Amino acid sequence: MRSSPVCYANSRDVRAEYRDEETVEDRNERKDNASSIHLNYKPMKEIKLKRIYDDPSGDDGYRVLVDRLWPRGVSKEDAKLDEWDKELAPSTELRKWFGHKEERFKEFSQRYREELKDKKEPLDKLREKANEKTLCLLYAAKDPELNQAVVLRDVLSEGK
Q: Is 104 exposed, middle or buried (0-12, 13-18, 19+ CB in 10 A)?
């Protein structure tokens, strides 16, 4: 690696620092190492969010209900589920505390993420499905932006 000067300027300070420049050889070596680490990496397909009350469609992919309680007025036949994953739903206590109140969503998200840290195996299973085909997380909540499926999708996408 070579060093080259980099200048920073703002209203109070002007300074020069040296930054390492990557040579072509360095870059090629880094790419070789990176590709050997990620040989089995496959990008996730799409993760959709959908209300369980909406009609199923052909492009939903693998349909998973992520509510702890079965939604009112929906028959298991009409739901056309591939899976009902109660284990990944928020705990009863957290669900009741949240009550789908907008002002509680940020804290709900943090607490739900904490609960999900103990669910590595079912999360990995859903990630595998998402690597194979479109994954559709189904929820019963009325608000499409303030529900557990939004948080779960983000956790699955982050891969943590």
A: middle
Query: How far, rounded to the nearest angstrom, does the alpha carbon of residue 69 sit from its chain's CA centroid?
Result: 22
How many angstroms from the chain centroid is the CA of residue 122? 13
Paired strand residues for 73? none
Q: Mind listing the pLDDT tens digit for each residue in 93-151?
A: 999 999 999 999 999 999 999 999 999 999 999 999 999 999 999 999 999 999 999 99
What tokens were used for 121?
């195996």
Task: Provide the whole-model pTM.
Answer: 0.72
C-alpha triplet 112, 118, 120: angle, nearest 5°: 105
Q: Under DSSP, is residue 25 helix (H, G, I), strand (E, B) or coil?
A: helix
